[in-house]
C-alpha cells in the first residue's frame, strides 16, 4: 500500500488544532500539544512564504473580522490565543483548499470522522459522563454535550460535500456519519445538538426544491436571525410562542436562566456599542454577566466587535452569496449553507464559542469551484 506523504503531512498539520479538551486535562500532555501547535504555526508560515496563496474574498473579510477582534483585545490589554487559533485555521483552509487533489479536505474529514466515532464509543462506555470538568459531569471525548454539535455539523457537511463532488451523490460513508451524529446527540440529551441537526437536514431537503432554493441565502438568513433575536431577547416572543415553548415542549421561556445573562450583557454592550471590547479573558465576565459569555451569538458579536463587527459579517455574507450564485454548483454550496444557517439558529441560545470550524465554512464556499473530482 502506497503512503501519500501529502495526506500524512496534512493530517499532522491538522491534528493538534482539533484535539478535544480531554487531551488537555493532563498538564504535561497539554504542554506537549501546545508545543506541537506552535511548531505547526511555523510550518504554515513557511508554506505561505514558499507558495503565493491568493486568499478568497470571503476569506479576506473573515480574517479582517478576526484581526479586528484581536487588535481590540490587545488595545484592552488582552492577547487572545483563541482568536489567533481561529486565524490560523482560516489560513490553513485557504492554503489547503488550493490543493488540486483535495488532500487537505479529505485529511480533515478523516480526522473529524475518527473523533466522532471515538466520541460515540466514549458515550456508550460511559453513559453518565467520561469525566467531570467545571462542575459538569456530562463530558465525553469531545467535551460537554452541547458543544459537540460544533464539530458534528461541519464534519457531516464536509463528508457530504466530498461524496457529492466525487460521486454525484451522498455515499453510505457520509450518511453514516450523519446517523452517528444524530444517535450521539440523542444519547447525551443535547437539545442544542438535536435542533442544529434538524435545521441542517431540513435546509438540505428544502434547497432541493427550486422554488425555495432561490430565496435561501446567508444574508437573508442572518437578517431573519437578527429579527428573531430581537423578539426573543426583548421578551416579545413570549407573548406569541410562550404556550408552544412551555406548554408543548415543556421548556422555560427564560431559556435555562439565559435571559438574565442577556440583560447583563446588554448593559456592557451599550457602553461599547460601536466597536465592542475585543476578545477578553473568560473570568472577566463571570461577575459582570453571570457567565463567561452571553449565551447568544448576536450579543457575543456585539460584545466583541460592536456594530462594526455586525457590518463586517453582513458584508462577508453578501460577498459569499455572490460566490455561491456564480459557482455553477448551487447544490454543493447548499450543503455548507445548511450548516452555517444551523449555526445561526443555535446561536439564539449559544455564543458558539469554540466553534472554530464555523468561519472556515465561508472559506470553503469562497473556494467551492476548486473542489473538483472526475465523477466516478
Automatic annotation (TrEMBL):
Residues annotated as domain O-antigen ligase-related: 177-314
Membrane topology, as annotated: Multi-pass membrane protein
Any one Pfam family match given in the protein's UniProt record, by short name: Wzy_C
Localization: Membrane
Alphabetical UniProt keywords: Ligase, Membrane, Transmembrane, Transmembrane helix
Name of this chain's protein: O-antigen ligase family protein
Source organism superkingdom: Bacteria
Major subcellular location class: membrane
Spans traversing the lipid bilayer: 7-25, 31-49, 58-75, 81-97, 109-127, 147-163, 170-188, 218-237, 297-320, 332-349
Any GO MF annotation of the entry: ligase activity
Amino acid at each position: 500500500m502506497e503512503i501519500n506523504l501529502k495526506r500524512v503531512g496534512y493530517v499532522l498539520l491538522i491534528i493538534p488544532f482539533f484535539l478535544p479538551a480531554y487531551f488537555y486535562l493532563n498538564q504535561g500532555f497539554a504542554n506537549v500539544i501546545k508545543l506541537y501547535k506552535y511548531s505547526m504555526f511555523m510550518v504554515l508560515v513557511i508554506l505561505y512564504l514558499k507558495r503565493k496563496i491568493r486568499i478568497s474574498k470571503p476569506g479576506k473579510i473573515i480574517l479582517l473580522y478576526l484581526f479586528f477582534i484581536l487588535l481590540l483585545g490587545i488595545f484592552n490589554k488582552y492577547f487572545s490565543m483563541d482568536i489567533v487559533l481561529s486565524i490560523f485555521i482560516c489560513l490553513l483552509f485557504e492554503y489547503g483548499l488550493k490543493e488540486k487533489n483535495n488532500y487537505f479536505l479529505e485529511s480533515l474529514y478523516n480526522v473529524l470522522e475518527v473523533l466522532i466515532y471515538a466520541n460515540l464509543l466514549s458515550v456508550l462506555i460511559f453513559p453518565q459522563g467520561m469525566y467531570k470538568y467545571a462542575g459538569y459531569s456530562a463530558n465525553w471525548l469531545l467535551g460537554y454535550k452541547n458543544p459537540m454539535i460544533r464539530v458534528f455539523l461541519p464534519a457531516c457537511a464536509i463528508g457530504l460535500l466530498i461524496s457529492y463532488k466525487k460521486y454525484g451523490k451522498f455515499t453510505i460513508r457520509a450518511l453514516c456519519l450523519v446517523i452517528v451524529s444524530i444517535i450521539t446527540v440523542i444519547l447525551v440529551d443535547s437539545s442544542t445538538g438535536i435542533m442544529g441537526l434538524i435545521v441542517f437536514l431540513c435546509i438540505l431537503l428544502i434547497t432541493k426544491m427550486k422554488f425555495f432554493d432561490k430565496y435561501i441565502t446567508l444574508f437573508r438568513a442572518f437578517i431573519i436571525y437578527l429579527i428573531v433575536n430581537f423578539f426573543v431577547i426583548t421578551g416579545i416572543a413570549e407573548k406569541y410562542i410562550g404556550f408552544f415553548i412551555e406548554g408543548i415542549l415543556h421548556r422555560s421561556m427564560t431559556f435555562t436562566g439565559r435571559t438574565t445573562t442577556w440583560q447583563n450583557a446588554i448593559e456592557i454592550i451599550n457602553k461599547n456599542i460601536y466597536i465592542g471590547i475585543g476578545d477578553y479573558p473568560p473570568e472577566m465576565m463571570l461577575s459582570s454577566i453571570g457567565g463567561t459569555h452571553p449565551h447568544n451569538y448576536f450579543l457575543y458579536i456585539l460584545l466583541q466587535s460592536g456594530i462594526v463587527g455586525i457590518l463586517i459579517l453582513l458584508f462577508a455574507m453578501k460577498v459569499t452569496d455572490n460566490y455561491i450564485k456564480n459557482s455553477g454548483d448551487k447544490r454543493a454550496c447548499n450543503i455548507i449553507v445548511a450548516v452555517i444557517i444551523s449555526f445561526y439558529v443555535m446561536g439564539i441560545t449559544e455564543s458558539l464559542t469554540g466553534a472554530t470550524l464555523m468561519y472556515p465554512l465561508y472559506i470553503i464556499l469562497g473556494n467551492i469551484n476548486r473542489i473538483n473530482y472526475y465523477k466516478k
